[in-house]
Specification:
single chain, 369 residues, alpha/beta, Rossmann fold, 2 domains, six-stranded mixed sheet, 11 helices, globular, disordered N terminus
Length: 369
């Protein structure tokens, strides 16, 4: 009888401990801030905007341990698809929502007003109503619960333009943009200025002989076709600022390099060195370097700002070289030590105010004179 009583006591104690453990876990989960991300039509591992942004979200989760995260990947990229994904996150108590890219502008314009208690981090876009046919243009509104984060892409473009000019064997380089929108244009303006700067200051004689926009961020075959024509013309380095179109550009370069040609691609947004590997087993890459935007830094820093009471709601922020918001990768196996030294010299000239990289066509025209 005594043994049975002891058994009942032990069982009761175990059940109590289990319940206490469950209660503690639930309490811990409840203490975490829920941070969600909505991808554009691409995947979370697109080696571009989605991946770079998500890495920042996950880095914060890993470093701080104060948030729990998830993402939504809509089937399509219509405004309603994005709004539905945002609604799903709000309905499941996600308090901070991160959205990468200008395609979210009209969705965030509505969502920030519909969900005033939710915080939105919009990267590379400003919320607007999409009424571009209006005489006065669309209504732009960065709500008090939203921050718009931009980058000085022209500064990253400038640095890779110098890299291209110093690395080209043929003296001919090219540029392939996706859609002709401001972030892509600024990459291109900076690239042109960088090539010219290298010619003027570092003794190169390099020319951008082809400069085109494919017209989308998804046409892989179109990117490969344009790249093929450029390489056939004697161009040996192509800077792409074209999102998914770049997959085709890399494919063409890899095929040619595998056949013995010395051709390269300059990646965009994130470090695309691995994208240029000739094969899974190869340590050779056709990626010369990459013009990076610190998408991860943008996501990380403004999650942190929200959680620490310094969120700049209602503002547009633009990250520069001085903020470590743009630049080239820390490791660049295909750039010589001399080229890296020259790039660093130019970077310091920008930071010191000796060089102002053009961010408009008008400024570029003046720079090139």
């Amino acid at each position: 009888m005594r043994k049975r009583s002891i058994s009942f006591v032990l069982v009761a104690m175990l059940i109590g401990l289990m319940l206490a453990g469950c209660t503690q876990t639930a309490s811990n989960d409840a203490d975490l801030t829920r941070v969600g991300m909505v991808t554009d039509s691409g995947t979370i591992d697109d080696k571009s905007f989605n991946q770079g942004t998500w890495e920042g979200v996950k880095a914060y989760e890993s470093d701080k341990g104060t948030i729990t995260t998830t993402y939504q990947q809509p089937d399509n990229e219509a405004e309603t698809d994005y709004l539905n994904a945002i609604a799903d996150l709000v309905d499941t108590n996600y308090e901070i929502i991160v959205t990468p890219g200008f395609k979210f502008e009209t969705a965030i314009y509505q969502a920030q007003q519909q969900y005033p208690d939710t915080t939105f981090i919009l990267i590379d876009g400003t919320p607007n109503d999409g009424n571009w046919e209006s005489e006065d243009g669309p209504d732009f509104l960065v709500g008090p619960n939203t921050v718009s984060v931009y980058f000085h892409e022209e500064e990253a473009g400038f640095l890779v333009g110098i890299a291209a000019a110093l690395s080209s064997e043929t003296g001919k380089v090219g540029f392939i943009g996706g859609m002709e929108i401001p972030p892509v244009q600024k990459f291109g303006w900076g690239y042109q200025a960088g090539v010219q700067y290298a010619n003027d200051h570092f003794g190169t004689n390099t020319e951008i002989t082809e400069y085109v926009y494919e017209g989308s961020f998804v046409n892989i075959s179109g990117g490969q076709q344009i790249a093929s024509g450029m390489y056939d013309s004697g161009i040996d380095i192509i800077f792409h600022a074209a999102g998914g179109v770049g997959v085709g550009i890399f494919s063409e370069a890899i095929e040619r390099a595998t056949g013995g040609e010395d051709v390269f691609v300059i990646g965009v947004d994130i470090d695309q060195y691995e994208e240029g590997l000739l094969s899974e087993d190869s340590d050779r890459s056709v990626t010369l370097t990459s013009a990076m935007k610190a998408l991860d830094v943008a996501a990380y820093d403004y999650i942190d700002a929200k959680l620490n009471g310094t969120f700049p709601g209602g503002e547009e922020i633009r990250l520069s070289l001085a903020d470590n918001g743009v630049g080239i990768p820390d490791e660049n196996p295909n750039l010589s030590e001399d080229t890296l030294a020259r790039i660093e010299e130019a970077k310091q000239a920008i930071l010191n105010g000796e060089v102002v990289v053009p961010a408009t066509q008008e400024d570029l025209d003046a720079f090139l004179k």
